[in-house]
């Protein structure tokens, strides 16, 4: 999957190499949660009982790898600073494919004006509420306060990958990033 390839390469370049047998765990999960990132163990949990299709698993892996990338490159205070969590959830919803038009049509949610931003905001709030015991108002406030900066933080993709072709292009650009800079 080009989304995962890019994130794994970016983490490696940031000094956080991911080992499949160490950093991924498949488990049965409660409710309708599909996965999660455990910052204390730097492990991505995939909920094998709630993931039914490869495309869904690819999105979950990408979403959680974005959290792992954020954990690697920034000093994220996952437990005490809800704004840090909000930022990573915004980035994950924005860059993982969670809010593609096809996914939104499948959820019977679609609109024309600023729909992608609305989806990202709603999914970030929903994710915060799923992992932290905070009020909906607290989650909404945290998302709103950091939304613009975090929505526009496109690292390591450099663009919002709306489909696999965009993700492949972003991966190629990422691989060639240093080559272009060395010629300046």
Description:
The structure is a single chain. With 184 residues, the chain is mainly alpha-helical. Strands 1-3-2 form a three-stranded mixed β-sheet. It has helices at residues 2-13, 20-23, 54-73, 82-95, 101-106, 115-131, 136-151, 164-182; strands at residues 24-27, 35-38, 43-47. Helix 3 crosses helix 4 (82-95) and helix 4 crosses helix 6. The protein is built from eight helices and three strands; from the N terminus they run H-H-E-E-E-H-H-H-H-H-H. The two termini are 31 Å apart. Belongs to the peptidase M76 family.
Global morphology: globular
Largest sheet: 3 strands, mixed
Please tally the helical runs, counting DSSP H or I stretches of 4 or more residues. 8
Q: By helix and strand content, what is the structural category?
A: mainly alpha
Order of helices and strands: HHEEEHHHHHH
Could you give the count of β-strands? 3
Q: Strand share of the residues?
A: 5-15%
Give the radius of gyration. Answer: 16 Å
The residue-averaged pLDDT reads 88
Number of domains: 1
Distance between the termini: 31 Å
Helix proportion range: 55-70%
* Spatial order of the strands forming the largest sheet: 1-3-2
Q: Which segments are poorly predicted (pLDDT under 50) over 5 or more consecutive residues?
A: none
Keywords:
mainly alpha, 8 helices, 59% helix, single chain, 184 residues, three-stranded mixed beta sheet
């Amino acid at each position: 999957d080009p989304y995962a390839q890019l994130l794994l390469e970016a983490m490696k370049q940031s000094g956080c190499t991911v080992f499949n047998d160490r950093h991924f765990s498949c488990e049965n999960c409660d409710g309708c949660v599909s996965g999660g990132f455990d910052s204390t163990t730097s492990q991505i949990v995939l909920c094998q009982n709630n993931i039914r299709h490869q495309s869904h698993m690819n999105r979950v892996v990408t979403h959680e790898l974005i959290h792992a990338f954020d954990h690697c490159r920034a000093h994220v205070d996952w437990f005490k600073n809800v704004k840090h969590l909000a930022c990573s959830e915004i980035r994950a919803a924005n860059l993982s494919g969670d809010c593609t038009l096809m996914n939104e049509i499948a959820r019977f949610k679609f609109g024309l004006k600023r729909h992608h931003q609305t989806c990202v905001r709603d999914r970030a709030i929903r994710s915060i509420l799923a992992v932290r015991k905070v009020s909906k108002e607290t989650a909404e406030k945290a998302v709103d306060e950091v939304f613009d900066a975090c929505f526009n933080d496109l690292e390591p993709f450099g663009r919002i990958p709306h489909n696999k072709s965009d993700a492949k292009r972003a991966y190629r650009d990422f691989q060639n990033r240093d080559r272009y800079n060395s010629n300046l």
